[in-house]
Amino acid sequence: MPKVLIVDDEPHIRLLLEQTLEDLEDKGVEIITACNGKEALEIIKKESPDIVYLDVMMPETNGYDVCNAVKNELNLKNIYIIMLTAKGQEYDKKRGEDSGADIYMTKPFNPDVIIAKTASILNIAL
């Protein structure tokens, strides 16, 4: 069963992403959430999600550090990380790329893009 992890310290953003992706649950996708970077790393080690939607500015451990830990320290290159953040400056995007993010997207996000990207990565027909 494919798994998508949503990591954001803002409850309404987590809920919005969950609602955006809920139709994929009918296609067998499990949606998991975490409210900070530390919790995200624990879930990633245990659940090995296929995709992680990762906020940058969070308590405990920020998104850059989570991404770096997953891609470079734990060497989990097969986990697709999409940084989804309000930080849209070129410096921030570069930092996301340097930490190993597969895609860097800024908020506010387009729900249709999120659904299409998720389905494409998981090879699910919509």
List keywords for this structure.
5-stranded parallel beta sheet, 126 residues, Rossmann fold, globular, 5 strands, 5 helices
Structural description of this entry:
- This protein has helices spanning 11-25, 37-47, 63-73, 90-99, 111-122; strands at residues 3-7, 30-34, 51-54, 80-85, 103-106.
- By secondary structure, it is an alpha/beta fold.
- It has a single domain, classed as Rossmann fold.
- Strand 3, helix 3 (63-73) and strand 4 (80-85) form a beta-alpha-beta unit.
CATH-defined architecture:
3-Layer(aba) Sandwich
CATH superfamily: Response regulator
At CATH level 3, the topology is Rossmann fold
Evaluate the radius of gyration. Answer: 13 Å
Number of strands: 5
Q: Going across the major beta sheet, what is the strand order? A: 2-1-3-4-5
- Quickly count the domains: 1
Shape: globular
Major β-sheet, in short?
5 strands, parallel
- Structural class call reads alpha/beta
- Terminal residue distance: 17 Å
Secondary-structure element pattern, one letter each: EHEHEHEHEH
Number of helices: 5
Structure described in brief:
The protein has 126 residues and is of the alpha/beta class. It contains five helices and five strands, in the order E-H-E-H-E-H-E-H-E-H. The protein has one domain: Rossmann fold, CATH 3.40.50.
